[in-house]
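Much of what follows relies on a compact textual record of a protein's fold. A complete example follows; check for yourself that the lines match position by position.
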Amino acid sequence: MKYAEHIVPDYEGGEFSDLASAKEDASESLRELVGRAILSKQPDLPLAIEICDADGHLAAEVHIDTAIAQIARFSRDR
């Protein structure tokens, strides 16, 4: 998880059948984390989740702008 001033690694990670599945899971997780941070008025919002391959190399990132758009759509559709 990337924040403005630091990175919090996830040493356990997860296994996914493909990159699209990993990005979808990361997007959902980031959306939930951003929502919780906003509701609890935390000053430090998560900005992105990095997705790495089995060797630890960066494969993709899911950014907060994606999570914010999803939160807005979810709220609007309720």
